[in-house]
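Appendix B. Raw example, untouched.
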Amino acid sequence: MTRSPERIAETTRDIGHRLRAARTGAGLTLAHVAGRAGVSEGFLSKLERGQAAASIANLIQLADALGLGLHELFPSEAAPAKTMVAVHRAGEGGLQEVAATGYRWRHLGGGAPLDRMEVFHLVFPRAKGMEATVSHPGQEHCYVLSGEVLFHVGDEQHLLKAGDGILIDSQQPHRAENAGRGQAQVLMSVAKPADAAEVPDWWRLSSSKLKEEKPKEESKP
């Protein structure tokens, strides 16, 4: 069956978006990926913007350069480019713990290559476990489900209790910490520009830093 020009153009744009999302999410430059794949930087730039079509050979090279399977560059029901409907049920998906801190989190929705929103459930331990500050494009909203959380945004501090929420421009340096006697739980929604790299979640960043520092801590007498 012959595909319409509109459908071909849509697929070309989708592949470009997926390539860009994978590249920026990995923190790689156009020049770096183009060099790995053996294509020109200008061609890759046009491809990411949906202004050029690639051969299967080019796509195989680019997928390999980005550490992807070729199938990940094409839309499929299993891995959609954009979330159309996603239902999260109670009890689905266990909480992941950030090593040595007691912080726990789970992904509730969003995060596909063309999604601009991602939602998380965060659980803060009783004691402060980390103080990572981040700044990135986009906006985020945090709604306190239980406990008390102190949000640091720029030079300001905002103490929020259950039922309180805060919306911030994520370009401002920010972090959050438990301010109550028990654990605190937060529903966090992150919105990012379409052309922004993957949002550097502060709990993931802190986890990687702690893992790097762990040998030093173990070597102490």
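End of appendix B.
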